[in-house]
Amino acid sequence: MAPIVTKAASAAAPIDSSLHSGSLLGLIILILNLIVVVEVLNSERSVSSKFLWCMLIFLCPIVGIVLYFIHRLLRA
């Protein structure tokens, strides 16, 4: 016979706080992505250049953001 699991037994399980830190990091990366994409779209680049920067930022968010800011600093 299988043991019966009640709500009280499942509610007593500890909450893993490491899950929350990952969601905060994801939120920060999402906000940075949106800021950089808006900045790219408002720039005076060609349409193909804007498209490639946006694709890089969406496909590799952290690398894309870092490369964009390095590229922007070198052009200034």
Automatic annotation (TrEMBL):
Transmembrane segments annotated in the record for this chain: 24-42, 51-70
UniProt keyword Cell membrane present: yes
Cardiolipin synthase N-terminal domain span: 31-70
Primary residence: membrane
Domain of life: Eukaryota
UniProt membrane topology term: Multi-pass membrane protein
Pfam families named in the record: PLDc_N (PF13396)
Any one of the GO CC terms: plasma membrane
InterPro entries xref list: CLS_N
Subcellular location: Cell membrane
Keywords: Cell membrane, Membrane, Transmembrane, Transmembrane helix
Name listed for the protein in its UniProt record: Cardiolipin synthase N-terminal domain-containing protein
